Amino acid sequence: MRTFKSKLGSFITGFINEKRGNGFSYEFEEYMLKRFDSFIIEHDLDDGILSRTLVLEWAIQTPTESINYRNQRVSFTRQFGYYLLSLGKQAYIPMWMASESTSVPYIPSKSEIEEIYQSVDSYRLRHSCARYPQIELSVLFRLYYCCGLRLAESCYLKREHVDLEQGVLHIMHSKGDKDRLVPMARDLTDLCRKYDERMQARFPDGIWFFPRIDGKAPILKTTVDEMFAEIWKHTKASKTAPKAPRVHSLRHAFVIEKMNTWMKGGISEAMLPYLSVYLGHSSISETFYYFHIKEPIFEVIREKDGTSATVIPKVVEYEQ
């Protein structure tokens, strides 16, 4: 664990240990709380109290971050505040802040996805991610599209939760603290097996399936986002696409591909409950979100289900 140097440092350590004791990886949160700890010292606010002044200073949006990212930073502070209150300590709890409206994500076509993987497999990245083994990037980004994983689910995947004999991923404590099993295709399982052999040689006692460069912690979500942005930048499609996809766009593309295939076969309704479970959705209503995306690549959905606008219920905002 990182070393926290402020007067609140020991409490931050206790807070993280409590979260991990409850089964959460809390890696990205630890990284953000370390930033908070440094912020306290740098801004001369180190009086050992989670005060209103400290929290409001921390909550100021920086020029380089989005509203949602700022809100995420503050949410970790809010959780930490509740932890302090549970110990009988003084703490200011920040209010919930409005998020940016969620726009429809750009979902790459099949040809664009092929370009993405060509870039992953062959291009020498200039980012610090160039220090990561090429096979690690190849496997990491294939899991998002081939298995429809969320961003954090690949990052926090432990080796013990990857069954290379059966070809099954055990996704633990994901969104909503839910666990699920995600089967992989045989060729992807074979690729994961080759990758794991390589990483075993590099980190014999490694815990994480996608470790950081030093092998001591999982790869950060921010690192994966940055890598994907550079990978996309070196595709031909990036010069003509209306906007850039994100890592999560690969999950969306996976779902749409499945829906299109099933609709061509006339079995989409029967398979939706299974797809919902596979994706880790809380209910089928979350999966119905994809019926409302209006992109040319979803022609099969609109042609096969012309009544969707009136029959399919209004859905929640698309999940992350």
Automatic annotation (TrEMBL):
<keyword id="KW-0238">DNA-binding</keyword>
<dbReference type="InterPro" id="IPR002104">
    <property type="entry name" value="Integrase_catalytic"/>
</dbReference>
<dbReference type="Pfam" id="PF00589">
    <property type="entry name" value="Phage_integrase"/>
</dbReference>
<dbReference type="GO" id="GO:0003677">
    <property type="term" value="F:DNA binding"/>
</dbReference>
<dbReference type="InterPro" id="IPR050090">
    <property type="entry name" value="Tyrosine_recombinase_XerCD"/>
</dbReference>
<comment type="similarity">
    <text>Belongs to the 'phage' integrase family.</text>
</comment>
<dbReference type="GO" id="GO:0015074">
    <property type="term" value="P:DNA integration"/>
</dbReference>
<feature type="domain" description="Tyr recombinase">
    <location>
        <begin position="103"/>
        <end position="306"/>
    </location>
</feature>
<keyword id="KW-0233">DNA recombination</keyword>
<dbReference type="InterPro" id="IPR013762">
    <property type="entry name" value="Integrase-like_cat_sf"/>
</dbReference>
<dbReference type="GO" id="GO:0006310">
    <property type="term" value="P:DNA recombination"/>
</dbReference>
<dbReference type="InterPro" id="IPR011010">
    <property type="entry name" value="DNA_brk_join_enz"/>
</dbReference>
<protein>
    <submittedName>
        <fullName>Integrase</fullName>
    </submittedName>
</protein>
